Amino acid sequence: MMTPRERILAAIRHRPVDRLPTDMWATPEVQDKLYAYLGVDNVIDLYNRLGIDGIMGIRPPYVGPKLREDGDYRIDEWGMGYRPQAYATGVYSEQVYYPLADAKTIKDLEAYRWPSPDWYDYSALPQLAAQYPNRAIMCGYTAIFYYHNKLRGLELSLTDPFLQPEFTHHLIGRLSDFFTEYHRRCFEAGRGVINITQVTDDFGHQSGLLINPKTFARFYRAPMQRAIDLAKSYGLIVFHHDDGDVRPLLPTLAEMGIDVLNPIQWRCGDWDLEALKTGFGERLCFHGAVDNQETLPFGTPEDVRAEARRLVEALGRDGTGYIIAPCHNLQPHTSLENIIALYEAAREYGTLISPNR
Fold first, then answer.
1. Which of 110, 164, 166, 281 is the most buried (most CB within 10 A)?
2. Distances in Å between the alpha carbon of 171 and those of 109, 135, 162, 200?
3. What is the pLDDT at residue 355?
């Protein structure tokens, strides 16, 4: 039997596995429901009960200047303001303040208090990783376009490249400089402990890209490549999360050196999963793909099991290169029966091997 860490890393590297590995992303409400149902009180026991291998995330603790909190309103080290927002199915911390929304010039960008890499305790990383023995460890999150959104607001971040290209290059450069030094320190402190890092973003929507591929190439490709190259220099696996229909960018992302593609929201656009495996299966490991828009929340356990088998036969048809997981966070309106059916099916079908392997 392989350990969860061995199974995850082998699948990513396209090596043989005893079964396809599994992972789970879930909202706190779902996790609490699973704790109560299974009689556990921590994520490792939960994963052990459901047979989830899991990629465990760690980050250096923030030790910088005191952050403002006013009732349920909080400001993070970037100056971004958040409030909890209750929806019918759960509570999310939603951004309500964008600290560079009023910036007009490069001088305004320089007047902004950019966070410092000195504000984090990197020495804590080995101890944090030690909480998850025999599990794959992920540390780091570079997301240049997403942080452009979070600093300026979505509308301005979409118009900036066209209306203020020099301003945009300067802002993106400052983001890239911070992420590069922050992650260099993470990787140094976590050398031999960290296996995976995210160089990620959210370029897709339900039926296409949020930005033109030419805009990606002009503004975002170079800083993303810088982050990928840094990760590779430390021997790390690059995990790339990109919601929605990002198919037009896949050849470029694969060329840039990403290793894992998540979440594969195949209901966004018209994905051909067999063609995805054929075209990218030798370069990429696929993570996710179990539909979280219809199948998991509104299907039956039988629907979930059928989808899990279909995905294994498409994305894991060579017996490796696929990590079975929901295509995004499990939401509170997804039944426990469907969640359990997913991981039961993963254990059953995850040992399927095509006749051609």
1. 281
2. 7, 36, 14, 18
3. 39
Residue that is written with structure tokens 């922050």 in the block: 182
- Domain segments of the chain as ranges: 4-64+100-349
Q: Helix, strand or coil for residue 338? A: helix
Angle at 337 between CA 332 and CA 343, to 5 degrees: 100
The whole-model pTM stands at 0.96
List pLDDT tens digits, range 206-229: 999 999 999 999 999 999 999 999
The pLDDT of residue 90:
86
Contacts of 79 (CB under 8 A, 6+ apart): 97, 99, 112, 113
**Pairing state of beta strands 81-87 and 90-97?**
antiparallel
20 neighbors 316 (Cβ within 8 angstroms): yes
The architecture (CATH level 2) of 4-64+100-349 comes to Alpha-Beta Barrel (3.20)
CB atoms within 10 A of CB 265: 22
Tokens coding 53 = 């291998």
